[in-house]
Write a structure and sequence with these properties.
The chain has one domain. The longest helix is centred in the first third of the chain and has 16 residues, at about 5-20. The chain contains one helix and nine strands. A hairpin with a 2-residue loop joins strand 3 and strand 4. The strands form four sheets. The chain has a three-stranded antiparallel sheet, with no helix packed on it. The chain has a two-stranded antiparallel ribbon with strand order 2-5. The chain is α+β, with helices and mostly antiparallel strands and about 100 residues long.
Length: about 100
């Protein structure tokens, strides 16, 4: 292997190690204000190797803000659980979407 190829492989390996993996961070939000009803979204045509993650209401800056749906790369053997709000003891708790076996 030439020196140029070794440097390239080393740079690629280093950059791959620095990339954050999506879906590993968990976010918990509890608020007193119920989210609005979900918006109706037109789901685009299916994409091979991807799963549609529907839109949801996020809580940002003391108000709910709509986050549109998007395609998430498929994980074989898992199913996508969408983002959701649950009422718990008079407060609203936000659960991030995630993959489940």
């Amino acid at each position: 292997m030439s020196l140029r190829n070794r440097i390239l492989v080393g740079m690629l390996a280093t950059s791959a190690a620095l990339v954050a993996l999506p879906g590993q961070a968990r976010v918990y939000v509890d608020v007193d204000v119920a989210p609005p009803p979900p918006r109706v979204e037109v789901v685009p045509a299916p994409r091979v190797g991807y799963v549609w993650a529907p839109g949801y209401w996020a809580y940002r800056g003391h108000r709910h803000a709509w986050v549109g749906g998007n395609w998430v790369r498929e994980r074989r053997g898992y199913h996508w659980e969408p983002h959701r709000w649950e009422e718990r003891g008079g407060r609203w708790h936000f659960e991030e979407g995630r993959w489940r076996r």
